[in-house]
């Protein structure tokens, strides 16, 4: 796994990792690692020393093989259909929430009713785009 992808997994898992690090006495080392990541320094060796590299690798989302196609389009072309009672003035936002510092590849789909996703590494909301 490359660094940008690894940092995305780290960001997503950071609340749980902080809990574990505090319980094992590695809280200070984890915070030092995070500070280094914020500065753009390489952190893979530090993750390995803390025993987190393999753990994060198991938490990484797995991609389907490149030859797997998505679901087939529904009959009739699969375009958007207006909902009853909607006058057409609304719009659909296309995009994902991404790292505010462009440090990692974390990407979250917007979901109605969810809070704005936060970047645990930088302590800021993810940016939409």
TrEMBL record:
<feature type="region of interest" description="Disordered">
    <location>
        <begin position="63"/>
        <end position="85"/>
    </location>
</feature>
<protein>
    <recommendedName>
        <fullName>TniQ protein</fullName>
    </recommendedName>
</protein>
């Amino acid at each position: 796994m490359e660094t940008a992808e690894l940092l995305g997994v780290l960001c997503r898992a950071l609340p749980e990792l902080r809990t574990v690090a505090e319980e094992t006495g590695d809280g200070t080392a984890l915070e030092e690692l995070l500070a280094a990541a914020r500065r753009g320094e390489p952190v893979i060796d530090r993750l390995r020393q803390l025993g987190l590299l393999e753990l994060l690798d198991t938490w990484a989302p797995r991609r389907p093989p490149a030859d797997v196609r998505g679901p087939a389009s529904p009959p009739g072309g699969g375009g958007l259909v207006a909902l009853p009672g909607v006058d057409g003035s609304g719009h659909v936002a296309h995009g994902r929430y991404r790292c505010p510092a462009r440090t990692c590849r974390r990407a979250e789909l917007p979901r109605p009713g969810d809070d704005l996703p936060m970047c645990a590494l930088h302590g800021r909301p993810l940016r939409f785009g």
